[in-house]
Inverse folding.
């Protein structure tokens, strides 16, 4: 059952002088130590909850750096949180008990919009919804790739954590980072610090090592803003929906998908594949699904959705027609809908790109009695059992199918259904995300889910596959913690974070 750290909160209060310094920096109302709020910030969708010592909310980048410097002087662990919607990957809870949460939601500025080159600077408190509204008022030429999660999630934080985006790469869209280091120093990357303003946001970056990646999935610094390179809005767009069939139909489907990626008739991240459980969970909760539907839905029902773009109506007609025929030859059924034609949206599809609807959040409530109102959904508060598992595979049927077959059996032992979505960022690699949804009210459910999570990652590594995102606060595989790269990053961390205060242990660092 869900655990609570309430009895131990008094053991992790920061020193009074540190609290007073933070109050002088950000204002007394932005340093919160009330027990109820500390409990709330330590909740997550898997056990155990975390004991939070305080919540500090800076109002700008200067205050953020100053708050970090205070933490370094007092050797107090600090965990930055942008919008707190990282459900299933650690939520907004720190990586360890006793940490101070650095709440960045007040850093919500959008600036530097360039409507010709498709550039915009955002801070960590900017939500997908706010960014979409900002762009809608200024341009119809660009959009930001959105996620299946909530509209109130941070657009910047999701990109820094290498989240998935529809019709666009989230992480590689970032440049010109502004970073607050744990010792209070400020860092800027890219062309801006060189005085080369006319090349800000362009590719390639200035000569020298590319250091932006040091701040992706990282505890080396707090990114207080970055430039996002927006995706160009397609003139014409169609949606291809495919009912594939069972596991025996997947080899031909995957081969065709890989061919389309290689020839770029389907650009990277434009097609998503789901198993039947994932498909069912979008519309129903488990309790309302007939029992005889559940078993085949795990491995013998597969669905896909693809976005087809073109530069003119006649090109879209030819390309969509060709792709429809090709996928129909390896699937049970194909449906094609035109969403955008000659630069204008078809009625009913106006929000298809760049405006998050959060519908995928419904799948998180698979083990609950009913789906939530998406505008008010909060899996932490609602007691959802959830861990996301993100694994990369080679783009080949055998490796994927063997692992999925094994994973289904291992998850069943933990009382968890195989719920998986699959994307591709090229013809070489498949990116999978498993939804480990479980009933936290069942005795032993948390422990069983955590054991399954560890086994799934361990077996993946044994078979030569790697995780591309990890859940904050859960054990990091030994192979990652002891890698040569981890050793070097630990040395680098000691330079900018001499007291080791920033999210200790995140991804096995510090």
């Amino acid at each position: 059952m869900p655990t609570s750290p309430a009895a131990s909160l008094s053991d992790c209060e920061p020193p009074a002088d540190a609290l007073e310094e933070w109050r002088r920096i950000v204002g007394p109302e932005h340093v919160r130590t009330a027990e109820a709020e500390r409990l709330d910030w330590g909740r997550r969708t898997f056990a155990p909850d975390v004991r939070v010592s305080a919540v500090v909310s800076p109002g700008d980048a200067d205050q953020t750096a100053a708050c970090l410097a205070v933490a370094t002087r007092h050797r107090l662990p600090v965990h930055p949180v942008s919008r707190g919607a990282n459900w299933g990957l650690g939520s907004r809870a720190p990586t360890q008990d006793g940490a101070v949460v650095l709440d960045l939601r007040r850093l919500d500025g959008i600036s530097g919009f360039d409507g010709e080159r498709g550039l915009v600077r955002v801070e960590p408190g900017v939500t997908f919804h706010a960014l979409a509204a900002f762009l809608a008022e200024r341009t119809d030429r660009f959009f930001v790739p959105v996620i299946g999660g909530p509209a109130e999630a941070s657009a910047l934080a999701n990109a820094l954590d290498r989240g998935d985006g529809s019709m666009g790469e989230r992480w590689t869209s970032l440049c010109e980072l502004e970073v607050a280091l744990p010792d209070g120093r400020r860092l800027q990357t890219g062309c801006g610090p060189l005085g080369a303003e006319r090349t800000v946001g362009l590719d390639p970056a200035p000569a020298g090592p590319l250091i932006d990646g040091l701040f992706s999935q990282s505890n080396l610094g707090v990114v207080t803003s970055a430039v996002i390179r927006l995706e160009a809005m397609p003139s014409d767009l169609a949606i291809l929906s495919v009912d594939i069939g069972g596991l025996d139909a997947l080899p031909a489907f995957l081969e065709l998908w890989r061919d389309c990626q290689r020839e770029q008739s389907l650009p990277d991240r434009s097609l998503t594949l789901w198993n039947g459980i994932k498909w069912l969970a979008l519309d129903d909760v488990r309790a309302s699904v007939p029992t005889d539907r559940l078993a085949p839905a795990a491995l013998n029902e597969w669905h896909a959705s693809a976005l087809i773009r073109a530069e003119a109506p006649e090109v879209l007609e030819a390309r969509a027609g060709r792709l429809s025929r090709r996928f129909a030859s390896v699937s049970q059924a194909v449906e094609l809908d035109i969403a955008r034609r000659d630069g204008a949206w078809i009625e009913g599809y106006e929000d298809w790109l760049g405006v998050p609807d959060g519908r995928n959040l419904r799948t998180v409530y698979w083990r609950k009695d009913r789906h939530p109102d998406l505008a008010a959904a909060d899996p932490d508060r609602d007691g959802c059992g959830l861990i996301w598992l993100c694994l990369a595979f080679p783009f080949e049927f055998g490796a994927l199918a063997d692992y999925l077959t094994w994973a289904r059996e291992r998850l069943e032992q933990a009382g968890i259904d195989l719920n998986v979505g699959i994307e591709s960022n090229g013809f070489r690699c498949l990116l999978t995300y498993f939804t480990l949804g479980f009933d936290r009210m069942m005795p032993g459910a948390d422990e069983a889910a955590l054991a399954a999570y560890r086994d799934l990652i361990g077996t993946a590594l044994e078979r030569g596959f790697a995780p591309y995102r990890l859940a904050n606060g859960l054990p990091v595989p030994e192979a990652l913690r002891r890698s040569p790269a981890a050793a070097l990053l630990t040395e680098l961390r000691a330079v900018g974070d001499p007291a080791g205060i920033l999210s200790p242990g995140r991804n096995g660092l510090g």
Remarks:
- Residues 445-462 form the longest helix (18 residues).
